[in-house]
Each structure stands twice: as structure tokens, then as C-alpha cells.
Design brief:
Elements (H helix, E strand, L loop, with lengths): L3 H11 L2 H9 L12 H11 L3 H10 L2 H10 L7 H9 L4 H10 L7 H8 L5 H17 L9 H10 L5 H15 L3 H14 L5 H14 L2 H8 L2
Helix pairs in contact: 3-5, 4-5, 5-7, 7-9, 8-9, 9-11, 10-12, 11-12, 11-13, 12-13
């Protein structure tokens, strides 16, 4: 049985003060962090295996890296919607948000529903989670049809005027990843970006111009044609 106390001690021992300084520079909340890098956490998760009870204990510790590790060792099949909602409300850093979406929430049966539900929430990190989850699904759900992503473009367009940094970057991320999934979605994403570009909003104009730069690039177009 895995012991949360020993894992927290291990995380503390693996901490790197220089990494903590880097976290602060990248806007990552480091008040309860040790400075353990993601590849190290992945190796720990691989050794621990899936352990949902341990994941819940790690999350409750409130330690930055322990929460990222919790998302890696939690079992998606055992994650209830109430747990996902609670964890999302407790996000206090963009990297915890993105890692939990990537490693856990994207693999649950309600991932697409949460994209829609959370996209209208006021809390900055809950809303970010909606669009980070869209991006993760666009990349990771290889079996999904394009039709599952088309409704997300309407949500992206609706929320492109949110001026908060962590929201607008996730909205941009979702738009770019959906637009790189297929030629059909690329065309729809470009059209969405062009509409967003006309909005009277600095956030919307940045989202659109940055996305269009990538979605209309030769590298992306060539890759989609060769699929």
C-alpha cells in the first residue's frame, strides 16, 4: 500500500529551488510547491501505478506537485463528476489545471460534457479547464469524429472576449488544436478565427491572430493534406 506521507517526503527531497524560481517566472503559483519537474512526477506515477485512494489523499495535501501527481495516479473509471467539479474549483495554477485535464479528466466518460459545462463558469481556472480539456481531447481522442468538436468552436467564439490571461490562452490553445485535427476542422477553425478577429476585444484579436498564424501555415496545411 502506498503511503502518502512517504510520497510527500520524497517530493520534498526531490525539490529544486531553481525550479521554484522558474515556476514564478512562468506565472505558476509556488507558495506550496517544492520545485519537482514534470518528468520526475511521471516516473513516480509510473512506479506507483493507478491508485485512486492515494490520488485523493495526495490532492487533499494541497501540495502543488502532489496535486499534479494525483491526476496521474487517479483512475479515470473511478472519477465521479462531483470529484471532477470539486478538483476544478480548487485549481489555483494553470499547470495543475492543464496536467489534470490531460492525464485524468480527458479520459473520463464525461469529458465532453465538462467542456460545455465549465466553459460558462466565472471562475478563471474552471473556465480554463474547459478549454484545456477541449485541446487535450482534440489531440488525444483519436477515435472521435469531427462532429464532436464542431460545437466547441461556438463556445470558443463566445468566450474569446474574456480578457483574463489564463482563459484567453486556453481558448487560443483549443482553437489551434481543433483546427489541426483535420482539413475540415481546419477550415471551420479558420472561419471561426476570422469572425473572432472582428470583435472589439484585445483578447479576441490576439486569440484570432495567433491561431490564424498557425492554422494557415504551410506546415499545418501540408501535414493535414498528407494524412
Amino acid at each position: 500500500m502506498n503511503n502518502v506521507t512517504s510520497i510527500l517526503s520524497q517530493l520534498r527531497a526531490l525539490g529544486n529551488p531553481r525550479a521554484l524560481e522558474g515556476m514564478s517566472r512562468y506565472g505558476i503559483h509556488s507558495g506550496n510547491a517544492y520545485g519537482v519537474q514534470i518528468p520526475v512526477l511521471r516516473n513516480m506515477a509510473k512506479a506507483l501505478g493507478k491508485d485512486h485512494a492515494l490520488a485523493q489523499q495526495l490532492w487533499r495535501s494541497g501540495v502543488h506537485e502532489a496535486r499534479i501527481l494525483a491526476g496521474m495516479v487517479a483512475d479515470p473509471a473511478h472519477v465521479a463528476e462531483s470529484q471532477a467539479n470539486r478538483w476544478a474549483r480548487e485549481f489555483d495554477s494553470w499547470d495543475v489545471c492543464d496536467q489534470v485535464c490531460l492525464n485524468l479528466f480527458a479520459h473520463t466518460g464525461f469529458a465532453y460534457d465538462k467542456c460545455r459545462e465549465w466553459s460558462s463558469r466565472e471562475d478563471e481556472f474552471v473556465k480554463r479547464a474547459a478549454f484545456a480539456l477541449m485541446a487535450c481531447l482534440a489531440v488525444g481522442d483519436k477515435e472521435a469524429s469531427d462532429r464532436k468538436f464542431v460545437p466547441f468552436l461556438r463556445l470558443i467564439e463566445r468566450e474569446a472576449v474574456d480578457e483574463r490571461n489564463y482563459v484567453k490562452k486556453a481558448v487560443n490553445w483549443a482553437l489551434r488544436q481543433i483546427g489541426k485535427r483535420s482539413s475540415a476542422l481546419n477550415k471551420l477553425a479558420v472561419r471561426t478565427a476570422r469572425r473572432i478577429q472582428t470583435f472589439d476585444s484585445p483578447s479576441a484579436r490576439w486569440i484570432a491572430s495567433d491561431a490564424l498564424r498557425e492554422l494557415r501555415s504551410d506546415a499545418v496545411r501540408n501535414r493535414l493534406r498528407n494524412r
